[in-house]
Amino acid sequence: MPKLLSTTLAVMAAGVAAFAHAADDFPLLQKDSKATYIVKNSAGANSSGNQDHCVDSVLTERKMRFFIKHAVPSTAFNYQRALILDDCTAEGFVRSHKGKTYRLTLDGATGWGALAAGTKTRYLYCERCEGILDKDFPLD
Asked: What is the largest CA-CA distance in the chain?
C-alpha cells in the first residue's frame, strides 16, 4: 500500500476512534469531581425564547452538578417523546479537569437534558430532576 494512502487511512481511523470516544465521555464526566460548571443563562426561557413564561426558573452550578450526578444516558427518540413544547430550558457549560468543554441544556419540567461536545449530543434523563429549574428545587 502506498505510504500516503496508509498514512491517510491511519489518520482517518484515529479520527473515528476519537469521535467514538467522545460519545463515551459521560461516565467519566459524572466521576470528575474537579469539573467546572458555568451557568450561561441562569433564568430559563421557553422554546420561543420567552423568559417571561419562565420567570421562576433558575439554573445554578449546584443544579448542573446534581443533574450530571443523577442522570442516565438515553436516546434522542426518548428525549423527543418526552419533550414538552414551551417547557423552560436553561443552559450552561461543563469543563472537565482534562480541559474538554461540554454544553449542558436542561429542560425544567421533564428531567431531561442534553450534553453536547462539538457535533455529538448525548441525551440524558434524571428522574429525580423533574422540576430542576424551579427556584425551590430540593438538591438533596
From this structure: 64
3-state class of 28 per DSSP? Answer: helix
Q: DSSP of 18-70, one letter per residue?
A: HHHHHHT-HHHHHT-TT-EEEEEEEEEE-TT--SGGGTTBB--HHHHHHHHHH
Per-residue pLDDT reduced to its tens digit, 40-63 = 876 665 555 555 567 778 899 999
In a domain, 2, yes or no: no
Question: Residue 119 domain-assigned?
Answer: yes
Q: Give the count of domains, the chain.
A: 1
- Give the tens place of pLDDT for each residue, 13-42: 333 333 334 446 889 999 999 999 999 876
User: What kind and span of H or E run contains 70?
Assistant: helix 61-70
Does residue 140 sit within a domain? no
Secondary structure (DSSP) of 97-126: TTS-EEEEEEETTTSEEEEEETTEEEEEE-
Domain of 105? 26-129
* Size (the chain), residues: 140
The overall pTM is greater than 0.85: no
